[in-house]
Design brief:
The protein has 12 helices and 12 strands. The protein is an alpha/beta fold. Among the domains are: 45 residues, 434 Repressor (Amino-terminal Domain) (Orthogonal Bundle), CATH 1.10.260.40; 130 residues, Rossmann fold (3-Layer(aba) Sandwich), CATH 3.40.50. It has a 6-stranded parallel β-sheet with strand order 2-1-3-4-5-11, with helices on both faces.
Length: 341
């Protein structure tokens, strides 16, 4: 069997560099990491945790692939996953595809090299069309149990935990409509993402139900960041033609709240703001953020339980489970300005 030194010789690097690539303990250049991963594949080298698995004992590692660990949505999910995995005697191996989104395939290869016992993949990772094919090849090659969160590509036949994003967008917009708002802006996520498209469709559905025809200036595209919410919030407030904003995630909604505070616009007295997801920090902003969501730690725990069940019961058809999103009414939404006067 090949050794770590054999891999280092083939890749033209030190054996400590090979160790850093395998364990993720230090930054290694993309070129060197690619050579190491190729050498591991060509040589058949099996890291120690995987060697234990080959002797009959599982490595007891769960992999997690998220689009952006700096986003509280992902961080809270991972905390929930960690709680479930630790209780079952498993460790987590986390990969975040940002800021190196083009490196998704290399990260999946790295997880495979560690012989993870199962893998959770969060929706935004599928920004690249090839990701589903890469995961499919990896799953077929190693019979790897997969759990997909909030996305179900047709190429992958595996367990999924989904939310009804269109209904969530509709619910958020209906809430604003019930408060008397008719000039409701939508700050969408990246238009190329399925989640963004679904939440945007929900906004359109609710407006159509109420007989409201959206004006072109009411729709803008963001990137799910605080900065995007702040920037677009300032633009809408300077124009002064909307009374409410539906943001496609909570981070962008918080950016809109910051824009309102900066411009001296009272929330909800002059502007109502609602988001989606239910990140924990939204409970502690001023005003507290109204959102459509759920406890993300609980979602992470549920995802972990589903994956562990699949590891223990590898046979059988894929499971499709729906997670519940509910309107969490807080302080950032109120009646349309001038109502009742």
């Amino acid at each position: 069997m090949s050794s770590i030194k054999d891999v280092a010789l083939m890749a033209g690097v030190s054996y400590t560099t090979v160790s850093h690539v395998i364990n993720g303990t230090r930054r290694v250049s993309d070129a060197a990491r690619q050579r190491v991963l190729q050498a591991i594949s060509d040589s058949g080298y099996v890291p120690s945790a995987a060697a234990r698995a080959l002797r009959g004992a599982k490595a007891r590692i769960l992999g997690v692939l998220v689009p952006d660990i700096s986003n509280p949505f992902c961080a809270e999910l991972v905390l929930g996953l960690e709680t479930t995995s630790r209780a079952a005697g498993y460790s987590l191996l986390l990969c975040s595809t940002e800021p190196d989104a083009a490196d998704v395939e290399a990260q999946i290869d790295s997880l495979m090299a560690r012989r993870v016992d199962g893998l959770v993949v969060v929706a935004g990772v599928f920004d690249r069309p090839s990701t589903a094919q890469v995961l499919r090849r990896a799953a077929v090659r190693s019979r790897l149990p997969l759990l997909l969160l909030d996305r179900s590509p047709a190429e992958l036949r595996c367990d999924v935990l989904l939310a009804q994003h269109r209904e969530a967008g509709c619910e958020a917009t209906r809430h604003l409509l019930a408060l008397g708002h008719r000039r409701i802006a939508c700050l969408s996520g990246p238009m190329g993402l399925n989640i963004s498209q679904e939440r945007l469709a929900g906004w359109r559905d609710a407006l159509a139900e109420a007989g409201v025809v959206p004006e072109p200036g009411w729709l803008a595209e963001g990137d799910f960041s605080l900065e995007a919410g702040h920037r677009q919030g300032l633009a809408w407030l300077q124009q002064g033609d909307v009374t409410a904003v539906f943001a496609s995630n909570d981070l962008m909604a918080l950016g809109v709240l910051r824009a309102a505070a900066q411009m001296g616009v009272r929330v909800p007295g002059q502007l109502s703001v609602v988001g989606i997801d239910g990140i924990d920090i939204g409970r502690y902003t001023h005003p507290a953020l109204t959102t459509v969501g759920a406890s993300l730690r609980a979602v992470g725990q549920e995802a972990g339980e589903m994956l562990l069940h699949r590891i223990q019961h590898p046979e059988g058809p894929p499971h499709r489970r729906w997670r519940t999103l509910a309107l969490l009414m807080r302080e950032s939404t109120g009646p349309v300005p001038g109502a009742g006067t």
